[in-house]
Design goal:
The chain is an alpha+beta fold. The protein has one domain: Winged helix-like DNA-binding domain superfamily/Winged helix DNA-binding domain (Arc Repressor Mutant, subunit A). Helices cover about 50% and strands about 20% of the residues. It has three helices and three strands. It has a three-stranded antiparallel sheet. A hairpin with a 2-residue loop joins β2 and β3. α1 packs across α3. The longest helix is centred in the first third of the chain and has 15 residues. The radius of gyration is 12 Å and the shape is globular.
Length: about 70
């Protein structure tokens, strides 16, 4: 896995999340068709870019898009 592949996978995950719903990790994994390490790397990429939020509820991890508002 290289940076280009991780970036492409991040784009795939971002597209799935673009419906503005909160996705459970396992559901996102199933929908994306990515393996655990591929999905984890894509989530890390998006998190580093402040594109997503992560929430834990018990044993479940939920991922959703951030709403960034810049007033300049």
């Amino acid at each position: 896995m290289d940076k280009k592949e991780i970036g492409c996978n991040a784009g795939k995950v971002w597209h799935i999340l673009s419906n503005n719903a909160s996705w459970k990790y396992d559901d996102l994994k199933e929908k994306s068709g990515l393996k655990d390490k591929e999905l984890a790397a894509a989530i890390g990429w998006l998190a580093r870019e402040n594109k997503i939020e992560l929430e834990e509820e018990g044993e479940d991890l939920y991922i959703y898009l951030c709403v960034n508002v810049y007033i300049g």
